[in-house]
Design a protein that fits this description.
Blueprint lengths: L2 H10 L4 E6 L3 H9 L6 E7 L3 H10 L12 H7 L3 E3 L2 H6 L5 E4 L4 H13 L3 E4 L2 H18 L3 E3 L4 H14 L3 E9 L13 H5 L3 H6 L4 H8 L2 H14 L18 H4 L14 E6 L16 E6 L3 H9 L10 E6 L8 H11 L11 E7 L8 E3 L6 E7 H7 L8 E5 L14 E2 L5 H12 L12
Helix pairs in contact: 1-15, 2-3, 6-7, 6-17, 7-12, 7-17, 8-12
Length: about 450
């Protein structure tokens, strides 16, 4: 049965999937725009730090006020409406909520929300991939131990990349590379919320109309989000990270099979089975025609002459050898696609991407020279960006996960471009996110531990 047929059946039986949404910002609003058009789901509750902003977004996306006027979750469940409030614990502890959608974008809060959902027998669709990047393997384990499903969110690029990787492997292909596109030039790594719109390609007026968060969008531009998302992909698929971070090779879609192949065959990969991010700009800033800036891709291998002949017969675009081919989606629709994850989790008990190992990590790096006592402001801010590294390398150097580089003070000066370590910051070891990260490190130790700093 297809997902849509399954949802229709639930609607016909008046047994919808009962949902709770935590965080109704830009991403959440995009999903809210689709909820009234999706059969078989009932969004019973929304929890947001600002219920007024949540209601404003509901109105913005076309909901009628009476639809979100429920006085309580019980009232919402009884009348098919939605309760809007600020109590996320009440949402997660309500016995009739089936699936929680974590959409805050705050990695430390998201970890608390996920753990509380598991304790209360709730499946989780986790939009906050920043949380998955620093402790996804343990979150997935905790979910399994609780008998629930923990899933990345479709529409976001990691889940879409996982889907392409799964397609290739299930069809019998070896995956050579997978990743996403990005608008990238090296100096973007120092971008701040004040410079983001000029680099990104929007005016401040356009950003205001769309209610776009400059810090969040800057986390994409400065390389933090690509590192975070590739970490999630590595840990969900078993693909590996480059040894010294993403290289952002420029390429058109047609060039991807030639670029994403091993170095000894003329490509950029250190090894087969690696993630990479493709830039939509040449190094001189020239835009590339037919780019994959907003898309995702998988490169797979024709390992026999017969398969390579099939590529040729069906005019598959490959590298010059005919060995490496690429499947891609040029766009992703963000929150508009989250319903795929909700349906997959609710109907099939299947995640649309979930950590299975600890292959990769994203470490905080100084955007500028940082002074003792400065407070780090996390991804997309003024102080740090993220660097993708193999987990073994990150743990051996004691790297500070980017997801925990929020609101912590520096204990020593850090030079621009230098990676941060645990010993560089003063951090609250009582934070649940800190505890679960340290627990995960103990469960997935590197083969060699070292305290030396890596540049």
């Amino acid at each position: 049965m297809s997902l849509y047929q399954g949802l229709r059946k639930l609607a016909d039986q008046a047994k919808p999937l009962r949902l709770g949404l935590i965080g109704a910002g830009k991403f959440g609003a995009m999903y809210l725009a689709q909820v009234p058009k999706t059969p078989g789901v009932h969004l019973a509750a929304i929890a947001d730090l600002s219920p007024a902003n949540a209601r404003a977004n509901l109105a913005r996306v076309g909901w009628k006020a009476e639809r979100y006027g429920a006085t309580s979750i019980d009232d919402a469940l009884a009348h098919g409406t939605t309760h809007v409030g600020d109590d996320w614990q009440a949402l997660l502890r309500h016995p009739k909520i089936d699936i929680a959608i974590e959409c805050t974008g705050n990695p430390i809060a998201a970890v608390e929300h996920c753990l509380e959902a598991f304790r209360n027998g709730k499946h989780v669709v986790n939009v906050t991939v920043e949380a998955d990047a620093f402790c996804g393997p343990l979150l997935a384990r905790r979910a399994r131990e609780s008998g629930v499903v923990y899933s990345l969110a479709f529409g976001d690029q990691p889940a879409l990349i996982c889907d392409l990787v799964d397609w290739a492997r299930a069809a019998g292909f070896s995956v050579v590379a997978a990743g996403r596109g990005h608008k990238w030039l090296p100096h973007f790594a120092q971008s701040t919320p004040e410079t983001v719109w000029g680099h990104y390609g929007l005016t401040p007026e356009q950003a205001k109309i769309g209610a776009l968060n400059p810090k969040m969008f800057n986390s994409f531009l400065d390389g933090s989000k690509p590192a975070i998302e590739c970490t999630a992909v590595c840990n969900a698929t078993g693909l590996v990270a480059p040894s010294d971070g993403l290289t952002y090779p420029p390429a058109s879609i047609d060039e991807i099979p030639s670029i994403c192949r091993p170095q000894d065959e003329g490509g950029v990969l250190e090894q087969k089975g690696q993630v990479e991010v493709i830039s939509s700009l040449r190094r001189d800033g020239t835009p590339i025609d037919y780019d994959i800036r907003f898309g995702v891709f998988v490169v797979f291998e024709g390992e026999t002459e017969y398969i390579r002949n099939c590529f040729s017969e069906y005019m598959v675009r490959t590298d010059a050898s005919g060995r490496y081919a690429c499947l891609y989606k040029r766009w992703h629709l963000i929150g508009l696609e989250v319903g795929i994850s909700v349906a997959s989790v609710g109907l099939r008990g299947e995640a649309t991407g979930s950590a299975t190992c600890f292959n990769a990590d994203v470490v905080a790096m100084a955007k500028r020279d940082l002074r003792v006592g400065e407070v780090l402001d996390g991804e997309g801010g003024y102080t740090v960006s993220g660097k993708l590294l193999p987990a073994q390398k990150s743990l051996a150097m004691g790297g500070l996960p980017l997801g925990l580089a929020h609101g912590v003070k520096l204990a020593r000066p850090i030079a621009r471009g230098q990676s941060l370590t645990w010993s560089d910051v003063v951090i609250d070891d009582k934070l649940p996110a800190y505890a679960i990260r340290r627990e995960m490190e103990a469960l997935f130790p590197p083969s060699v531990r070292s305290t030396q700093r890596a540049a």
